[in-house]
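sorry to bug you again but im stuck and you know this stuff better than me. what follows is a protein written twice so to speak, once as letters and once as structure tokens for the fold. mainly i need to know what kind of three dimensional shape the backbone takes. anything you notice is useful, everything is just below:
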Amino acid sequence: MTTETAADKPRGNPPVHEISDGLLKAAIWKQAGEHGPQYSVTFRRRYKDKGGDWQDSYSFNPDDLLALRELAREAREWINQQRRADREARREKESEAAVA
């Protein structure tokens, strides 16, 4: 599996992280929420159309399901790490504000 960060793919409103397994990709998105950042995940399958251009599909074959499960597990692990980092940053900010 390969991973890509938003910096690897310049475009409007990119995901904060992507995880790939062959033609399958999980994109992790971060949105500001009332109680801190919220994360969501989308999955897609890349394929070439008749003209040879790459397209995305959001439906999957039975053979894709185990790889999707692994992508979902890796996405959850990455999000959990980010949530821990978000909590730590929030605690540091609150500690600094309390001292000031």
